[in-house]
Amino acid sequence: MANSSWSGSSPTNGTERHDEHRRLFRMRVLVFGAIVAPVLLLSIFSYISLDRRLEQFSFLRRQAVAYLASSMLRSRFDDLTMLTQTMANDSSLRTDLNAGRWSEGAETLRVHLDDDNGFSHFYLTDLQGNIKARLNEPPGEKNVEKIDEEWLTAVSRNWNPFITDLVTDSSPLRRPEIAVLAPIPGGTGQPMGILVAQISAGAILGWTKTIDLGPQNTVIYTDRRGRTPIYSAREPERLVLADLSVFGPVDQALRLNRGVEVVFDPMTGQEQVAAYEPVVRYGWATIVKQPVSAAFSVRNSESFFLLTVYALIFVFNLMLAFLVISGLSTVMRVQRRERTVFESIGDGLVVLDRRARIVDLNPTAESMFGWSRHDARGKDFAQVLAAQDDHGKNIPREQRSIWQALSGNHVNAKFIFQRRDGTRFPASVTATPMLIDDGVSGAVMVYRDVTKEDELDKAKKEFISIASHQLLTPVSAVKGFLSLLLDGDFGPISGKQREYLEKLYHLNERMIELVEDLLNVSRIDLGVFEAVVEPLDVKEFLKVEVEAVRPLAANKGVSLNEEYTTEDIKLKVSPKLLRNIVQNLISNAIKYTPGSGHVTVRLAMSEDHDLGKSVLFSVKDTGFGIPDAAKSKIFQKFYRADNVRMMGAEGTGLGLYIVKSVMNLFHGKIWFESEEGKGTTFYCVFPLDAGTPMDTKGVKK
């Protein structure tokens, strides 16, 4: 009976206990869902968000350091090229070289060996790269008789200063170094030699010590080939070159890209956070790297702290408020750090959203454009960042660099910007898209005021103008005295004396031509080309100009022909400017046409698609022609095609630049057709508007 009673009560008690467990489970689930789950979800969301912000901040800090290091190297290189060119321009050095005293000229550079720029030794070479003099040359290098052909090609391309890649010298120590090459100006505008200033690679490593890098940060500068100087593992006191061209960040920076990424560093054998930045204008690269553990130390420490707090939430729900405040405080600290970096950048920085509206701008941009952050936020970029062309006309929105950045492209440009108060200033702009989750969420615009650079360029042009004016007076006087001597006004001269005097007269004429061309170029560049607009019979004007150069054609045996329309053509134009066009084109045609060739001058009425009724002037020759490779550069200042230079034809490379500039002032058109070895035809179209002077904006009337 007892057994029967037990067996009857067992299932009932088991069911109650089961129900009790179920109720307890439901309660626990309810409590977890009502109290713990929301806190847990909030904690997870907060942790992920904060982790991302901290990671972005770490990357931004690396990029900021890389930008600073790149700017420092660019500034150093700018200083070195400017100083080297200044040394090359030194009058004492040029005087010694003119007299053939190369060694004495090298001694004038000794004062620069002990300055802070790192110059270790100097070479002076002729225009073929042959070393003519050495100063403070390291032992073991005296067997070097000529500089590298690649260096010679680079510096002679435009005769501008050039900084080489890292190389090792030929001494037994084989020390890494770089060289700065600068042309030494000659008296006729052609360089008389090249100054080579050698700088030890140790100086480059020394430059990085002036940057506040932070813990375990390392700055690496590489040349155009991806090489950098490092200390040898076997000989810690000795510098050697390491090839980092296969290192991903170096390759990206040499391709003119910038960014931050986590990569494996073959030099240290560990993962590094590497920020890369190109050194604009010089082709070098800047890499700032830091071990992952150090780079993400802030993130890791914060993450550990948050995980600890979140673990305590499960046990102590009363600490929820503390956890929220702690999380928010951390976020605010990160935001403050990001804001500090944002506001500390020396260039104007503007952030826009995907609709090109202003999101934020730093204090430099506020000062640059005259807009406060509060007033600018939310406004369209064209309202705040008003860009204009040289004539004060607003640039259309679709031509602004912001739209290319919002399409995912990096853009560098230069515009004239208008401040809020109406004043204008030139600035270069770099537009970079903001890529988040593989999508463009906006753009970052970096503005740099280039007023001082433009003023320097203007000062250089004014110097050329003044120098040319000062040269014109003595060469004109020399021409007068030579004419008197040749005419026998000072007594009879022998045949040999006449031969030399005629050579001097010819050389002086070339000098006058060069000075006049330089004067015209400087007047055009400065916008002060003086001219008087008046009605002109173009046909009669051309006949006079053709007769003026006919003796030149006759001396060369070139046939000079004229083909004019029967119509009377009147233009309101400056005879002085028109003479520049006509004389340059006809004299060029005669100069570059061999004997027994033909030059034909034509004048006719024309109907142009853009200009309407117009005047067509052309000059056709059967001369050397223009090579295909030179056609895109033929109107550039000082440019001369290789074929005429090799044939020894005289010229300054300024005539066609002047013609093109004057045609632009007239709002006309100029083009040419040419085939090498067969000849060239130049065409000029002038707009025709009876009774209305042509718009010569930019010409001082």
TrEMBL record:
Q: What's a single GO BP term from this record?
A: regulation of DNA-templated transcription
Instruction: Give its E.C. classification number.
Output: 2.7.13.3
Q: Which residues form the Histidine kinase domain?
A: 466-690
Q: Where does the PAS domain lie? A: 334-389
What Pfam families does this protein's entry cite? HATPase_c (PF02518), HisKA (PF00512), PAS (PF00989)
Q: Where do the TM regions start and end?
A: 29-50, 304-329
Q: What is this protein called?
A: histidine kinase
This chain's source organism reads Candidatus Uhrbacteria bacterium RIFCSPHIGHO2_02_FULL_60_10
